[in-house]
Amino acid sequence: MTAAPLAASTLPDNVGYVAAAYLVFLALVLVYVAIMATKLARVERELGELNALADAPPAGTPATPPPIQEPVA
Predict the structure, then answer these.
(1) Rounded to an integer, what distance in angstroms lies between the CA atom of residue 8 and that of residue 51?
(2) Which residues, in sequence order, are CB contacts of 63 under 8 Å at separation 6+?
(3) Alpha-carbon span 12 to 24, nearest angstrom
(4) How far is residue 29's CA from residue 56's CA, in Å, rounded to a whole number?
(5) What gap in Å lies between CA 22 and CA 14, rounded to an integer?
(6) Do residues 54 and 48 lie in contact, with contact meaning Cβ atoms separated by under 8 Å?
(7) 9-54, pLDDT tens digit by residue?
(8) Contact 63, 57 (CB under 8 A)
(9) pTM above 0.90, yes or no
(10) How many other CB atoms are there within 10 angstroms of residue 18's CB atom?
(11) How far is residue 17 CA from its own chain's centroid?
(12) CA-CA distance, 70 to 6, in Å (whole number)?
């Protein structure tokens, strides 16, 4: 006997269904990873915006503080 007929006679009939199930599972994992990647990108962008807002001076304040005047004695 050669290997091909032996393998064909020992494999169950539902191999196609098992392969399809693995492909569906792989597709679901890839969709999940893509969704998480987009959420991570959005959170990183929003975090950058918040850091920029935190570093900016408050509205209505001058960009540079007024000079300190020495008292004249």
Answers:
(1) 62
(2) 57
(3) 20
(4) 41
(5) 13
(6) no
(7) 777 788 889 999 999 999 999 999 999 999 999 999 999 999 998 8
(8) yes
(9) no
(10) 10
(11) 32
(12) 100
